[in-house]
Amino acid sequence: MEDLVMYITVFVLAMFVGFEVITKVPPTLHTPLMSGANAISGITVVGALIAAGSQNSGLAKFLGLLALIFATVNVVGGFLVTHRMLEMFRRKE
Amino acid sequence: MKEFMINIAYLISASLFIFGLRNLSHPKTAVRGNMIGALGMLVAVVVTLLDNRIVDFSLIILGLLVGAVVGTVLALRVQMTAMPQLVAVFNGLGGGASALVAGTALYELLSLGMTPDVPFTTATVASGIIGAVTFFGSGVAFGKLQGLIKERPIRYSGEQVVKALVFGLALLFGLLLIKNPGDTHLYWLMILVSSVLGVLLTIAIGGADMPVVIALLNSYSGLAAAATGFVLENNALIISGSLVGASGIILTNLMCKAMNRSLLNVLFGGFGEAVSEEEDIYQGKVKATTPEEVALILEGARRVVIVPGYGMAVAQAQYAVRDLYNLLESRGVEVEFGIHPVAGRMPGHMNVLLAEVDIPYEKMKELEEINPTFDQTDVVIVIGANDVVNPSAQTDPKSPIAGMPVLEVWKARTVVVIKRSLSPGFAGIPNPLFAMENTLMLFMDAKKAVQEIVNALKES
After folding, report:
1. Residue B378 annotated as catalytic
2. Strands of B414-419's sheet, edge to edge?
3. Is B359 within a domain?
4. Which of A18, B174, B250, B421 has the most CB within a 10 Å radius?
5. Do A48 and B236 touch (CB under 8 A)?
């Protein structure tokens, strides 16, 4: 139960940090912000790696693999496409 | 000791995410910010691979390989105009992955003969519901943006009751699962019902409200990851998930404000389904023009503002707009872009299209910045935008868009509206701007119209 309180604390504090940091992003960059933030939400890949690699039975293993593919597309594609967009904004100076 | 080191590494990666997002506050540092974020992800992945629970790397290699190839191809090949679709897909995959990971964690615990406690199953339920809604909601959003499903909102009688019942049913299965964590059928029933809910929620929302939906789904994908973090008791997931959740909430809020509507109204309000009776406000007042005439007017202009809308994206007119911009600037005309927050199909959509064709970001002005400058502007060119330049938002308190912040283009000396016809925009209402004294209508495809204006300017 103490653990749970600790995790909730982390969750709430991180939310505040998120609000602080994100409000400073200018509207011009809102699309790359979405794709970049989205790539970060692909952190689920951490759980997917363990699920796909541990001693699971058939179904759990298959689900783990599916989750890993989804999350990896999310992470790799998300960071790459964000990079592509941000390069366009930087190009002309 | 090893677990301690792993947790420290997760903390480092979460900190890198925060640093990365902080650097997104300016276009100059943003590229670096994104790389810092990617580095954080790399740290998290490498550290996880050292985890003792991993005994078999074959599926991991397969999954990483397939995911990386698909992700790379999607990211490198997507057209900038199709960016909203791609973000919808990524949102959906993130949410789906979180739900699957939570489900797998439940199976794993059960296979070890342990009984999951209430916090564990509660988090699993949260992750499952949010993840499934995100996955299928994003699927529908993708279908609408890609034109696979019709963009008009699909409404029916008793709609809100149906949605409430489906949501209640998903919660019920969730509660039953918390009571009987051993019964995995309940998990799948809950996922099934949540998937239906995701479809019902997005199918009811129309094209121009997509920026809100995409932002909201973005937030959900973060919250699903955070819920999965509670399942796995992993701080990296909790922190990153809540960062993304916060980001999505902020954007959702901004989009709603830009339309002067509440989130509840966007999700359940039934906006834009009724096409109002065509009042004849246009009769005899609309003046059509030609590209040549527009070129002539532009010759005498010293300051020009271009207002792009979704029509520019549909017509892929951004390259033609760039040519016009370059030509005018080379002749000493001051050119700026006035961008409404909800122009296009996702937050910042127009800015990306303009950046793609090398328009400097200093030239892209927000609504509050550009509005005071219209009375010193000689020519405004509206390209494929409608509701965001509708004066009735300010003049008609009964209008469905009353109170919505709009670009006050009519204050300029001349307004040229490039549009195929007089058909109403998403709000389904006529636009008095088109009938104003100083407005000229250029009834053409956006790309062709701008190209012909450029040609006419060059010849003169």
Report:
1. no
2. B364-366, B334-339, B303-308, B379-383, B414-419, B439-443
3. yes
4. A18
5. no
